[in-house]
Each structure stands twice: as C-alpha cells, then as structure tokens.
Amino acid sequence: QICYLWKESRKASHLLWKVIFVHHASVFSFSLCVCPANTSLSVFVDTRAVLHCPNATSNVLVVTWSVIFRDNTSCIRAYRTDSNKTREKTCTDERISWDSRPDQNFALRINPVAITHEGYYKCEVVTPDGNFCHGHHLQVLVPPKVTLSLGENGTTVCWAVAGKPAAQISWTPMGDCHTVEERLGNDTVTVQSTCHWEDRQVSEVSCFVSHVTGNKSLSIELNQGNYLCFFFFFFFFLR
C-alpha cells in the first residue's frame, strides 16, 4: 500500500486528506468513495473524447481522476486547488491528459481514442461539504470494413473486417448461408458470411451489414461470368 498525505492549515484548523492507492494482484482500487452515479459512454476509435467531473456545490479542494483500463493497468491524475499543483501515478499514455488547465477545467481528454483506452474512468471532487464522484464506463467502437465478392463454386462472400463489437450480416434474398467469426488480437472481430443460391433465377444479391457505428449494404450480380463469356463470344466471333 502506498499512501500520499496532503495537509493544510487554514485559520488554526487542520484539514487532512488521505488518498490511498491499493495495488494488489493486478487489481487497482481507489478508496475515497464508491460512485453512486455511473454512465456508459461509447466513442469511435481515432476520435476525441472528453470526460467530465461532477458539479461541486462548494469550493473544490482536490480533484482526482482514477482510471482502470481493460487490461487492469491503471492511471491516477490529481489536482490540488490551493497550491495549483498536479500529481500523477503510472500515467504514461500522452493521449490522456487534462482537457485544458486543471485550474480552469477538471475534465479529462483522450485524443485520439484507441481501443486500449477502454475501461472505467472515475472523477472524485473533494470539498468541505463532502466528496462527489462520477464514473464513466468507456467503450471504444470500431467500424468494420465491408466487402462483397464472388467466391468459388457459385458462392458469394460478404466480409465485415475488424469491427468492434462484431457486426451482423444478413442477405437479400435469403440463401444457404454459413457465417463465421474470427476474433483478432486487438479485440476486434472479423465476420465472414458465405452464401449459395440454388435458384438459377436469382441474378443479384445484397449483403446488409448491421453495426452500432452504422449500417452498410452492398450488391453484386451473380451472373457476371455469363456476361463476360457472352461479351467475348460476341466480340471475337461476331464482329
């Protein structure tokens, strides 16, 4: 256990603030309060995110951001108003910082957002009237790259590559389809759907990819090969 003691004397009264950081068995906890208010926040990868602290009803003494990332690593940033000083612990990612000067704005900025920034962000504000805190469950969204092509043996393949979370794929018209998911090392998912249509009268099919970042639809003609054969036959033999 590592304890940081901040003391101040004002008008013959002594205020003692104790911040305790407990780091044990890869579990990082911040002991000042349990946040009654938590929100879920979803942001796109490679964008800018700003996380805000709760509104305090009286003079702010100390502001502390404690972060637990999804891999159980952590970061703590603290600001003390009377001395206008900041302190941090294990905050090595330069993309995470105060949104501006902490004496003007207590918000935390992430720019640009990466998948590794996913986690729990808690802001605690210490005042003479008590502590106020708010937690943010940050989820990072990654739009998949969508492609549609003709496969082997009369099949058609639709891909939703490296999306987070996994995309959903559907077809029009419905065919004999097989869908598989591949989880990649960066927590994104590639979805591959392969379809075949026994009905020879189906000339065009559409792949519809549904994702929280936005939907996309692609279409392809199944008889492209027949058109090419007809074109070459007409060009070489009937000209």
UniProtKB/TrEMBL annotation:
Q: Which residues form the Ig-like domain?
A: 128-219
Going by the UniProt record, its keywords in alphabetical order are: Disulfide bond, Glycoprotein, Membrane, Receptor, Signal, Transmembrane, Transmembrane helix
- Cited InterPro entries: CD200R (IPR040012), Ig-like_dom (IPR007110), Ig-like_dom_sf (IPR036179), Ig-like_fold (IPR013783), Ig_sub (IPR003599), Ig_V-set (IPR013106)
Provide the GO MF annotations for this entry. signaling receptor activity
Can you say where in the cell this protein is located?
Answer: Membrane
Main subcellular localisation = membrane
Q: Name one GO biological process term.
A: regulation of neuroinflammatory response
Topology of this chain in the membrane: Single-pass type I membrane protein
Q: Name one GO cellular component term.
A: external side of plasma membrane
Question: Metal-binding as a keyword?
Answer: no
Fetch the Gene3D superfamilies from UniProt.
Immunoglobulins
Q: Per its UniProt record, what Pfam families does this chain match?
A: V-set
Question: Per the similarity annotation, which family is this?
Answer: Belongs to the CD200R family.
Can you say what this protein is called?
Answer: Ig-like domain-containing protein
**Species this chain originates from:** Canis lupus dingo
